[in-house]
Design a protein that fits this description.
CATH topology of the largest domain in chain A: Four Helix Bundle (Hemerythrin (Met), subunit A)
Order of helices and strands of chain A: HHHHHHHHHHHHHEEH
GO biological process, one term (chains A, B, C, D): action potential
Shape of chain A: flat
CATH architecture of the largest domain in chain A: Up-down Bundle
Oligomer: homotetramer
Protein name (chains A, B, C, D): Ion transporter
Structural class of chain A: mainly alpha
Number of domains of chain A: 2
Organism (chains A, B, C, D): Aequorivita aquimaris
Strand content of chain A: under 5%
Helix content of chain A: 55-70%
Largest sheet of chain A: 2 strands, antiparallel
Distance between the termini of chain A: 80 Å
GO cellular component, one term (chains A, B, C, D): voltage-gated potassium channel complex
Largest interface: A-D, 71 and 67 residues
Strand order of the largest sheet of chain A: 1-2
GO molecular function (chains A, B, C, D): voltage-gated potassium channel activity
Radius of gyration of chain A: 29 Å
Chain lengths: 282, 282, 282, 282
């Protein structure tokens, strides 16, 4: 039995894969990041017909190299981590798994290529790898702002959908299939295109009545956008308040420093005791 | 005479339909919600030509089942409620009625199908059924914010319409019917499409002068969107602040102090009683 | 000499035209408003070819009736007002004049019809006529907010134009006339269409490099819209502050009322003197 | 040796070119501004085919006049400034150089015309020339607001890109090349067009599933726009408040008080000296 030996071997591998403090760990992270980017670029290039027919074999080999690397990485992550199950069913664990298997199941089923899009999610590792604590902090704030205004956002989305269904049905009745509004689902789709001010123009109202209703929908959509913006603005303004304190115009008798905290008893610059009365009398 | 017996029968039905605390009440609510959703899906599917020709009879039977259920539900609601008139002319009462009748009047008139779009409004019952007090609260806040900024929004809409009419007339003169600007109403419609940044592209300026004016309209529309957003943002930011109260222009007869709380009875500066009428008269 | 008599005649006419307190004044205002709306509807209908060929004579007669009424109104306004010059060169005076003359000069020049668009501006009188003081107040606030952030808005517009000129030139070089980017001015126009997120789609990049640059422009435009919104939001949030005061948690010894103004000396509810120390000690 | 003489000659030229206080300096600035505008107009007109074929020679001569003036100006700026290197490698120095050379290198290479777009950047001189301190102030504020919310904006852009890559891949799989989604890069481009609510409409989903996904993307994009707006709004609202200072998480060794000013040297509560290193180490 040589548990320490084995543990030490797994321990070192764990450090390389999960940490980025050693030179080896950094190298691994950089290679991983490059391979993730490469895997996305490869998937993109394969989809461009001109490029695929010309360089099909190179792309196919590249795909295999990445898949093999991802496979080894995935196995190594499972082996070295203390609680493999926790990793496998974690957010990153599932993404890692789905990023690895597409090539394997392409032998079994054709058309499993939609899994390739999951690879883009691996890009999120960039935050971890580069230890961008600051950016993670911002992302956390953003997520918290979104979560705390979840109820507002759901009410808003529900309102958008009800408007789209009603207006879509009316547009279908007014314009009809002869003007491109083929069916109510298509009409509802067009309403959302219009409400969100995207406006593709593949379908557009032709009758005066349809154009009138479209005008109402557009102005509605133009106004509705103010709602989520107002919500997030208010959330953000409030969440910022934790990093700021109110200061007053009281000045220190000793060094003349101003803009002290409202409840300051000592000068933040020279440590002199502040005269609380002097402020109140002013 | 057995009023208690009868009242008890109506009472139990009332509890099933209007409340959601008993198992039967919950079951009824879930079935109702499913049928509302189904009724909307049915209307949508009927409008898709391929599906309608294939499954016309099934859809037609489904439509009848839903209509009969809605009819019974509508009658039951009228019978069990204490003040039937109040229900019939309430918001939900009218929606329930309009959701029920389309199939009946389709025997009398063709083309009454536009009433089917009303059914989407029944979805609003989801809030009631699921007792989503929290979401109703959010919706109320949203509605209050919109109501309190009603004057601003009307001024804004009026400005948008005046701009659209003026710019539309100019575009019609500049571009003319040969470039798709068939008439002034069409031009005004195009202006709103552009101002709201929807931009379908079914009509687009071709002449340099028209493109110049279009540029001005677009930048105007791009900037104008800031106005409703700013309004709602400010409303929301304010409504969150429980540390502020609204003050009015009433002035104290004794010391002349102004900016009292709206509900103030005594001057905050000298303690003199304030004359509530003096404010109303101003 | 009968100046009082004459003055009284002009005085009464002045009251009818400029004021809205007498029944005659109200009637005049309502008729004026209806005629302004009618004049705009007439101009619009004339531009619709199908309607114009059918009802040309009725429309032409209607146009003459409105023009004659506007002429008399314009003359009456000049006669009855104390300082005719001040009226003639005022904002409303010029609009009234330009709304009246198009039919007259159509005898002299063809194509003077662009003046008809000025009539839409007469709609602004609606605020005056209906004495909608509240809405005028909102409009004034809006105008003040726009004026006080004039410098910011100009810097913003200048930035948008410089970006559009640079990106437009680059798009012209990349895409070229063969893909619809006919000339640099057209390219700049397309850039503004894209920056403002209108996106007509009459011109769209085809080459990969062009699509890449378009992506950058779109994201830029998507982000830039935050700037005017942020400006107006901040302006509005501040301008609202004048109607609110900060309140604290101090409670009245006599009636227990809370949320007094920070500088309140007496309770706003019962007039009891507040103990300033009790607040500071808390 | 006549250094003073020569210095005086260079000194006077320096004053004309770099300052705007003397009549000659003002004249120079106005001429420069006109020539910059003219150079941009010339580049634009050359690109319009109808105009170029007709007035090619005039435009070509104009181009040469401007290039020669710019050349002399560039040389004069280098001669008269004290530290020529600092100027040459400054922002304005590089722009001045790139604005001057296109015509010269057009003898060497064809297709160097993309440098002409740099000339638009010379327009930024307008701020310097017109001494629009106020506008420069606003621009600085805007830039500072953007810089201070840099981390947030990068996180936001990254999120947009990841969403676009994932949704783009899915759209390519769903719609396929036969519906205009030629390749994944094109699909990603379409996703950004949709997310930013530009919506050209050159490519639009046709299948029901594609339209469903498009709906999700649109609503996502419609909601995401709230994020940068909220960020900038909060930044602006905050930057207006000179009554607030940023605080950090450093805690006092003596009394444990937290939330000190970023530049505090002494604790505001007990007057103990703060250890600046303790904060940096955390």
């Amino acid at each position: 039995m040589k548990p320490t030996n084995k543990r030490s071997w797994r321990y070192r591998l764990h450090e390389i894969i999960y940490e980025a403090d050693t030179p080896m760990g950094k190298l691994f992270d950089v290679i991983l990041l490059i391979l993730i980017l490469l895997s996305i670029v490869l998937v993109m290039l394969e989809s461009v017909q001109g490029i695929d027919t010309k360089y099909h074999e190179i792309l196919y080999i590249g795909e295999w190299i990445i898949t093999i690397f991802f496979t080894f990485e995935y196995i190594a992550r499972i082996i070295t981590v203390k609680k493999p199950k926790a990793y496998i069913f974690s957010f990153y664990g599932i993404i890692d798994f789905l990023s690895t298997i597409p090539l394997y199941i392409s032998f079994l089923f054709a058309g499993s290529s939609f899994l390739l899009s999951v690879r883009a999610l691996r890009l999120l590792r960039v935050f971890r790898i580069l230890k961008l604590a600051r950016y993670v902090g911002e992302a956390t704030k953003l997520r918290r702002a979104l979560i705390s205004s979840r109820a507002k956002i759901l009410v808003f989305l529900f309102a958008v959908l009800v408007i789209a269904v009603i207006a879509g049905t009316l547009m279908y009745i007014i314009e009809g299939p002869e003007n491109g509004f083929k069916s109510i689902p298509t009409s509802v789709y067009w309403c959302i295109v219009t409400l969100t001010t995207v406006g593709f123009g593949d379908i557009a109202p032709v009758t005066p009545l349809g154009q009138l209703l479209a005008t109402v929908i557009m102005i509605l959509g133009y106004g509705i956008i103010a709602v989520p913006t107002g919500i997030v603005s208010a959330e953000y303004t409030r969440s910022k308040d934790n990093d700021y304190v109110h200061v007053n115009t009281q000045s220190c008798r000793n060094c003349g420093a101003q803009r002290h905290r409202d409840d300051a008893k000592y000068c933040h610059k020279c440590g002199e005791e502040l005269n609380p009365k002097s402020h109140i009398e002013t």
